[in-house]
Amino acid sequence: MNKQVGLWCVISMASIPLVMTLGNSMLIPVLPIFEDKLNISSFQSSMIITSYSIAAILLIPIAGYLSDRFGRKKVIIPSLILTLIGGLIAGLASSMTDSPYLWIILGRILQGFGAAGAAPIVLPLVGDLYKNDDEHASSCLGIIETSNTFGKVLSPIVGAAFAAIVWYIPFYAISVFSLISLIFVLFFIKVPRDQNPHDPLKIFLSKTKDIFKREGNWLYVVFGIGAYTMLVLFGILFYLSDILEKSHDIEGVRKGIILAIPLLVLCLASLLAGKNIKGDLNVMRYLLVVGVGILSLFVPFVGFLEDNVRMLLLISSVVGLSIGALLPTLDAMITENIEKDERGTITSFYSSARFIGVALGPPLISIFMNEYVKVIYILGGCLGVLILILTFIFIKPSQQSV
């Protein structure tokens, strides 16, 4: 193992996706409360999640290029500061103004910009620190993705608990968590000095184009799987949060604990998958095929189970199991098959794809939830079948770069 990668370095890297996940997923169980306190619609409340994701989508490729050119840590630190400031803007506006909705959206956009330069940069950073050590890199990526998913487990409980005190405390909490992660990064992550010259922007863009020409088929499928998993996950979480409160009168921390159940399954699956990949492309392909296949099979049932909370939780947990196996697999495929100088940019495109799913899930469900929820989840299953076919066709270990 690289001597620069100690326990506190791994903890510090893992804190970044944990904070970014808390900063978004923590608000999902609180959205119905926002609707009541701010007098906004379900679609408007979904924009509190989507504005964050859209901002991240726009900035992630730029952040990836900057991290390749100037260094990972130099991008992560100001990004965490932006996330901190965004939380303060949303929190102060909520506590000090009568109509804070637009200020909340502004704060969330700033947090999205911060997220763009923080969590996605961790993936190429792991590749840098574990250069030529695929087994340890896969294991570390499993820990990183587990931290991400553990944040998803904690987030509904923590968000509901904070909102039970005062509805806008989750915004301030995001700033506190960002500050803690910032301190960890400053003191415990020691990035190896890069002695290699960097290409000017024009050459960089040309090389990026060449990468997609050379590797495009399997990369596009990986991006598609990443977007699909987040679309399914955040769509189901938004749907569960809404119907638990409005159809079953389950609120507060109790609702947060129920939402955490499928996320806990996701977290455990992510940890186990990360430990067993070990840089083996055949194992990665097998996990992708099985994971996407299970999603395609079970997602359509979600729309038919509004009145049966136990069955809905069971199906959601199976979905969580599949997504948990997929996420570290996708991370490893990107990180271990792209050269170091190109890694930040390619992982940034992958992260943008994931954020597209996050951005689309809640508003799509809010629009179709009342009359067409069954249709939207059936279409979600059909989309999974299409992605499964593309996975069979284009992801072949013998054809990928190593």
Automatic annotation (TrEMBL):
Q: Name one GO molecular function term.
A: transmembrane transporter activity
Q: List the keywords (alphabetical).
A: Cell membrane, Membrane, Transmembrane, Transmembrane helix, Transport
What the entry lists under InterPro entries is as follows: MFS, MFS_dom, MFS_Efflux_Transporters, MFS_trans_sf, Sugar_transporter_CS
Q: Per the record's keyword annotation, is Transport included, yes or no?
A: yes
- Membrane spanning segments where? 7-31, 43-63, 75-95, 101-126, 171-189, 218-240, 252-274, 286-305, 311-330, 351-369, 375-395
Q: Is the keyword Manganese in the record?
A: no
Report the GO terms under cellular component.
plasma membrane
State where the protein is found. Answer: Cell membrane
Its predominant location is membrane
Q: Where is the Major facilitator superfamily (MFS) profile domain?
A: 9-399
> How does the protein associate with the membrane?
Multi-pass membrane protein
Q: Which CDD domains match?
A: MFS_YfmO_like (cd17474)
Pfam families from the xrefs? MFS_1
Its recorded name reads MFS transporter
Instruction: State the organism of origin.
Output: Filobacillus milosensis
